[in-house]
Design a protein that fits this description.
By secondary structure, the chain is of the alpha/beta class. The chain has 15 helices and eleven strands.
């Protein structure tokens, strides 16, 4: 035993670097603080998109050798920060931007240092209570009942999966019933919903794409006709998926009318509001969300609408029995955890058992800044989107439907050049320029350019810079295609 003790002491000494002392921690934190200050300080002057400009990606490989913190940060800056899209930039106006407010990093830092396990109430009642209070706040925002349950997820994909499995288990969609079950959604539904159906074992269900109106919203009359027809055919309609802020164009489906249909035919209504949900905080936009409180489940992403760093979605489900049926499980080694279950544990409401204490990244900003500041920021983002679309109209572009939220689409119709060819070339020029990042999408076979305003760092000056860039890229595109 003495020999073993000596061997263990030797090993203890060999791994001592894993616990830096106070002065060593101060040195490491000083280098990280310098990196953070430099990174944030140069955002206004740097490109938002840089293609694939790697210097030497082999430096990212793990080969067992060690490096100083200075060298590690240098590798990160050159091989990770430099190439591709910079999501922290205010010039990120493509896809749906995530946030990255400083207080998010504070929350993540404390969560990592304290290393609280936020999966089970028994292990960390404080962490679970904190996350449940965030869920309570969201239930209040969307007028969900106190009895509803919710979970903080990694993002909208897992949140949608949780909701869809709850709907599946509520209606007992399993075995031979799967092939006769019907899900109603639209072509504008986010692809993660399709993935969730597949992962939930529902890849054989009948999927109906509901026709859309001119504003790309679900046509309720067509939805009802589909349900009636499917019931007459002996099928089993059970789930409607509507959107409150589509990824393509940011529109909101007519939720109130869809809720009437789901009540009439006893279906489950799920709302994907991952992008758009928190715009309900803006007073003049509340009416657009009328009926959302009547849904059976709801997905919202704080890392979008509340400007947090990537990695925080949320799901609310009214039917306790359904969500618990899908996820509640007690392994033999967790018998101690059943002694004290004053609150629902996140591990009982999602696929995750091991779970990051991700709630702290939202709790600290809400405690630090309150709620009104986020409402004002969202109001600004919608205004910036409208301001931008007015600007591109002056440059001769055709714009799509007036945005419900902060995503808009536009395209250039050239008198002698194919529209798709022109807009694709223009998009390539915009990416080559890189001052501001925009993305494109295909709608009914036509290429449209998208603007998605949701970065907390995007302001009037950013939009002005973007319009100037588009003007320059438009001239280069016309010249390039004219020479072909």
């Amino acid at each position: 035993m003495e020999k073993l003790r000596e061997e263990l002491l030797i090993l203890e000494n060999k791994i001592s670097k894993l616990e830096p002392n106070k002065s060593q921690r101060a040195e490491l934190l000083n280098k990280l603080e310098q990196y953070a200050d430099n990174f944030i300080g140069q955002l206004d002057d740097s490109l938002s998109f840089r293609g694939n400009e790697t210097k030497d990606s082999s430096r990212l490989a793990i080969d067992g050798t060690t490096a100083s913190i200075e060298e590690i940060i240098s590798i990160f800056e050159e091989e990770v920060d430099t190439p591709g899209l910079n999501p922290a930039s205010g010039g990120h106006l493509g896809y749906i931007p995530g946030g990255g407010i400083f207080a998010t990093a504070m929350g993540d830092f404390i969560a990592a240092i304290s290393n609280r396990y936020a999966g089970l109430y028994f292990g960390s009642p404080g962490a679970v209570r904190l996350e449940n209070r965030l869920i309570d706040w969201m239930k209040m925002v969307f007028n969900y009942p106190d009895s509803a349950l919710g979970n903080l997820t990694s993002g909208g994909s897992i949140a949608n999966l949780i909701a869809i499995t709850a709907a599946r288990d509520h209606f007992g969609i399993e075995g031979e019933k799967v092939q006769k079950a019907v899900v109603y959604l639209s072509e504008q539904t986010h692809h993660c919903v399709h993935k969730a159906l597949r992962i939930a074992g529902l890849n054989s269900v009948v999927i109906r794409n509901i026709p859309l109106d001119e504003a790309f919203n679900i046509r309720v009359d067509a939805l009802e006709k589909m349900i009636i027809s499917d019931k007459k055919a002996g099928l089993y309609p059970f789930l409607i998926v509507a959107s409150a802020g589509t990824t393509n164009i940011g529109n909101i489906d007519p939720i109130e009318k869809i809720a009437d249909i789901k009540d009439k035919y006893n279906l489950w209504l799920h709302i994907d509001a991952a992008y758009g949900g928190f715009f309900i905080l803006v007073d003049e936009l509340k009416s657009k969300f009328k009926g959302i409180e009547r849904s059976d489940s709801l997905v919202i992403d704080p890392h979008k609408g509340l400007f947090l760093a990537y990695g925080l979605g949320a799901v609310l489900v009214k039917n306790q029995k359904a969500i618990l049926k899908s996820h509640h499980y007690r392994a033999s080694y967790l018998i101690d955890a059943t002694k004290n279950d004053e609150e629902h544990s996140p591990a009982d409401l999602s696929p995750e058992l091991t779970k990051h204490f991700r709630g702290l990244r939202l709790w600290i900003p809400l405690k630090l800044y309150g709620v009104e500041i986020f409402a004002n920021a969202l109001k600004e983002k919608r205004g910036l989107c409208i301001y931008f679309l007015e600007g591109v109209k002056k440059l001769g572009f055709k714009v799509g439907p007036e945005p419900d939220l902060s995503v808009g689409i536009f395209q250039y119709i050239h008198e002698s050049i194919d529209s798709n060819t022109f807009n694709k070339t223009l998009m390539d020029e915009i990416h080559e320029d890189g001052r501001v990042f925009l993305s494109s999408t295909l709608i009914n076979g036509a290429i449209w350019i998208r603007v998605a305003v949701l970065s907390f760092r995007t302001h009037v000056s950013t939009v002005d810079r973007c319009l100037e860039m588009i003007k320059d890229c438009l001239q280069r595109t016309e010249l390039k295609l004219a020479l072909k």
